[in-house]
Structures are given as C-alpha cells and as structure tokens.
Structures
1.
Amino acid sequence: ETGVTQSPTHLIKTRGQQVTLRCSSQSGHNTVSWYQQALGQGPQFIFQYYREEENGRGNFPPRFSGLQFPNYSSELNVNALELDDSALYLCASSLDFPGTDTQYFGPGTRLTVL
Amino acid sequence: DAKTTQPTSMDCAEGRAANLPCNHSTISGNEYVYWYRQIHSQGPQYIIHGLKNNETNEMASLIITEDRKSSTLILPHATLRDTAVYYCIVRVIYGQNFVFGPGTRLSVLP
C-alpha cells in the first residue's frame, strides 16, 4: 500500500510569484485535504477535494485554489505569493465514507517566500 | 478554534509510560476523539481515535472518561523516537475536517 506523497519537498519563491504543489493520495483514497502549517503552529485547513470538486474550505483567500484529478491526485495553487505564505503545506488523503474517513498525511512541502 | 486543551509540553523517561492528557469539556455526543503526532517537520501521523470506549492499537491506548470530557493517550513504553508534538482533536466521524490546536510537545529523555 502506497502512502501519501507530495512534491516538491522544498520550494523557494519570491513575493508575487505563483506556485503549484502536488499530492498523490494513498491507494484506495478518494478525498484529498490541504493544510497550511506555519512555524510553531498546528496545521490549518485550507480546503478539501472530493470527486474533483471542492468540498469545504477554510478561512483562506481565493488566491489559494486547487484541483483534483480522476486518479484522485491533487494540486494546490497559490497566486500572488506573500511573505506570510511561507509554511509547510500538507496534503492528507482519506476515504469518503462514514466511519472510515481518517485522514492520512503526506510529508509536506516546505515553501519559502522571499 | 480547537475544542481541546492540552499541556504545552511534557517530559517522559525512556522506557516509561507516557500519559498525555486532553480536556474536551464541550464535546458533543457524535464527536470522536482523535490523536495525531508530528515528529519534527514531518507530516502528522495518525495514532488512534475513539468515541467512548477505551481503544488500543499497536501504537498506543486511548482512555476516555465516562463523561467524555477528557481523555488520555498512553504510550506504554516510550522511546526516543516518540519525541514529537501530540495533537488531540475532537471531530464528528464523518464529513468534518480536523482542527488542530498547538498540541503537547513530548520530550522522551534518555
């Protein structure tokens, strides 16, 4: 069974640029959630994708957007990067079914915005 | 906001049991207690979850009080590799995302 994978591991961008982060879900999982974790804080929910559609969103602006593909993999896109976007971005996959939707996290992508 | 309160940090001697408390006094009847841990700069790792009965798996035991207002995660024989931030989260079993608080930083000491 393959776990959740994310790419790239690390990324450095400058303010105003755009970035795309990628996530492959665990085998058999159909739902992907994205979280942002600033240094020293717990992860904060960005949004979730199920059946290629956004299925819930946290308190993040529209410049944070995403996609889910038919194979359940997902992308997180962030436009007009700001310094405060520097964080660890985590992807979690789960099976959308009552009683079994525990989320399993990938290793994360460390984004630094200069 | 997180619905749980946890100590900021704890120490535990290697080989001893680590008991991590969590208060969730406003928990609803349909909310489960989940525990995750995060080793430095890695993704959170699922440990265990439960509703009202005590639960045990290969990693840990979860003890939930009868009134469900608090719980304790027990690592029976802590090792240095158990040093991590431990998050206690309450959540309905289906359709709700995880709200992480700051967690408890557990240091296992040799």
Note: The CA atoms of residues 59 and 104 of chain A lie 22 Å apart.
2.
Amino acid sequence: KQEVTQIPAALSVPEGENLVLNCSFTDSAIYNLQWFRQDPGKGLTSLLLIQSSQREQTSGRLNASLDKSSGRSTLYIAASQPGDSATYLCAVDRRNTPLVFGKGTRLSVIA
Amino acid sequence: DAGVIQSPRHEVTEMGQEVTLRCKPISGHDYLFWYRQTMMRGLELLIYFNNNVPIDDSGMPEDRFSAKMPNASFSTLKIQPSEPRDSAVYFCASSGLAGGSSYEQYFGPGTRLTVT
C-alpha cells in the first residue's frame, strides 16, 4: 500500500529565503506526482505535475524534482514571500488510479 | 471549460438528516474521484468511477455513504443518516485523456459539510 510522507510538518522562514519541502513515497511504481497548495479553508491549487518519465518541472519561483527510484520529490521555492504561506501537499498515483496524499507541510513566511 | 463544479459549497445540517453532494466533472473526462479531507486523516479517497461505473469504493466509510454517477456529466455522494463525525470537506476530481497524456486530476472547490 502506497504511503506518502512529507517532512517537515511545519516550517517558518523569513521572507526572501529559499526553501525546500520534502516528499517521500514507499512504492516507486508511480505515474504522476503532483504538488498542490491549499490556503486555510480553501480548495486545492495544483502547482506542478511531474510524470514518472520526467525529472523536474518548473513554474516561476517553484521547481519540483522527482527521483522515482529513491521514492523522493522536493519542491524548491525561491525567494519566498509572505503570500507563499499555505499548506503544500504532495500526492502520487498510478495511471488512472486515485491520488495518495501526504499530510502536507504548513509553511509560514514571515515579513 | 468551467472546471469541476461542486455544489453546494457549504452545507450545515443536523444529525440524522440526509445530505447530497453534487459534482459535475470536466467535459470529456472519463474518471471521477470523490475525496474527503479531515484534520485527523488528511485527504483520502472515498470512491472513484470510470465511464460512470464504480471501480473502487473501499474508502466509503460505511453503508450510510453511497455514490452514483448516472451519466458522464453528473455524480452524487449521499450520506443518510448524517452524523457529526461526517463533518469534513468533500472534494470531487476528474481526469481523462481530454486533459492530455498526463491524466492529471483536476479538483473542484470542495463542499464543506458541518453536521451538528
């Protein structure tokens, strides 16, 4: 059974810092890995999707990498801003199967 | 496309009442997923459909929960009778080849259910 772990559970950083969020999964036979953002009381915003054949994806200040063989992904946020404060969720699936989510990392960026 | 549409966005009901949550997937998608998010357990799958047929309902907590997909553009999740422990945010998501080869899942805004 696939399990997804995100470390740390919470993170507080000063504005402007570069940071890394970690995600690990137990079964490397995945099809997609997605990173989501969730603001308090809100829905899920998809940030980046990495297919199993890819090693990384970039969007603006965000860069996500995937090492399928070791069961790890990282989300790198450059030059963090207070507006980046949210919970970040990592999820994996096999093709056309449900996503398995981690518990998330709650990020606070202090001005 | 308007994305995945869920209704209602918020529902407050009393214990014992019937609750029906609704979802309209993205046109052309042939997979539909229902997830539930709680503080204790995070986001978990309840049930998913392919071409309107339920594939895996092992996440449905008990017989009080039922889900249907009568056609490709509509699904319901029903709780009868509702209990306070059903209070959670319920998300619907859809995916398919219409979204490209990635089969990315697109999420609706969720329904926040409160059972008092």
Note: The first strand of chain A starts at residue 4 and ends at 7.
3.
Amino acid sequence: AQSVTQLGSHVSVSEGALVLLRCNYSSSVPPYLFWYVQYPNQGLQLLLKYTTGATLVKGINGFEAEFKKSETSFHLTKPSAHMSDAAEYFCAVRPSGTYKYIFGTGTRLKVLA
Amino acid sequence: GAVVSQHPSWVICKSGTSVKIECRSLDFQATTMFWYRQFPKQSLMLMATSNEGSKATYEQGVEKDKFLINHASLTLSTLTVTSAHPEDSSFYICSAAQGASIVNTEAFFGQGTRLTVV
C-alpha cells in the first residue's frame, strides 16, 4: 500500500531562517506529489505539485520542492521563513491511475520572531 | 484556480440529530468528489469517493448508513451525518476533481466544515 511519511510533526524555525519540511513516499511507480498548507480552521491550499518534467518545482509564497526518485523524497523548502508561514503542512501523493490522495500526518511549522 | 465551496463552515448539533454538509464546485463541473475527515491534530483520511449519478464508494471502516453521500449533479455533493454522536465531531473536507480523465486531474479542496456534536 502506498504511504507518505512526514518526518517531524513539529518544526520550529526563526524568522528569516531556512525552512525544510521532509516528505518521503513509498511507491514502486512515481506518483503525483503535492504539498498543501492548512491554516487554522481552514481547508487546504495547494502550495505546489509535481506530476512530470522538471524535478525542482516552484510554488506559491516562495516555496519549492524537489522530487528525488532515488530517495523517494519530496522535501519542501523555503530560503527565508516569514511569520505568515506558520501553519500545518501536508505532503500528499496521488498514485498514477487513481483520483485518491494519500496524505502524510502533517508538520506544524512554527516561526519564531 | 477552481473554487470549491463548503457549507456550512461550522455547525453544532445535538446528539441524535442529522446534519447535512454541502460541497459545491463553483466554476467547474466536478465528475468526482471526495469526502475526507480530519481528527484534531491528525491527517486527512479519505471517507468516500462519489461520482455524479452513481453510488459513492466508501473506504474500509466507514459506515455507509451513517455517512450518506449524494452526488446529484456535477456541481454538488452532500454528506449527511445521520444520528450524530459526539465521536462524530470532526473537521470534514471535500474535494472535487475536474474532468473525466485521471491523467493530470487535480482535486480542489473546500474550506472544510467543523462539526461539533453535543
């Protein structure tokens, strides 16, 4: 069965510091990969996605992620954290040939002033 | 991007009553809609997949008779929590997929509905 692992349920960074949120997936066939952000009591907002093509994907709000097939990873990064980045981040995969999304357990990002 | 709207955003109901949550795709036709449940501080778990005009497909462990899903049109799906109990209190999120082709189809998420059963 497909699964998504997000290392670190809580990550704290200082404002202006690098943000790195880790995501690994298990799949014999590379799936479609997504990062979503969720603010309190709100739905999910798509940050970025990888389907095919360039493995470095740029998203909104300065975030980017790199698909590494050999490592089965899709880590999310941002060079400089902003206070407004504090939120819950979910990595998700969508196996080829299905509509279903499989979500990781989420990482809560805290940005320290 | 496409917009998916859920209504209501939050609802409080008494134990034993039923609650209906609507999910609408505002600017596109959604062939397939999905319902997820999110417990506090946990991830989203897919409950069921609904296709317009046909019965929903429920994930293992989800009670079909308790969580009634109707996808009567290409822009509206409803989730009815029947005989709600406090353990049904949760955050429910829907998503809608545009197009009939799976390839490159992206699902768009609603803003969620927080259900509290007292």
Note: Chain A has a mean pLDDT of 91.
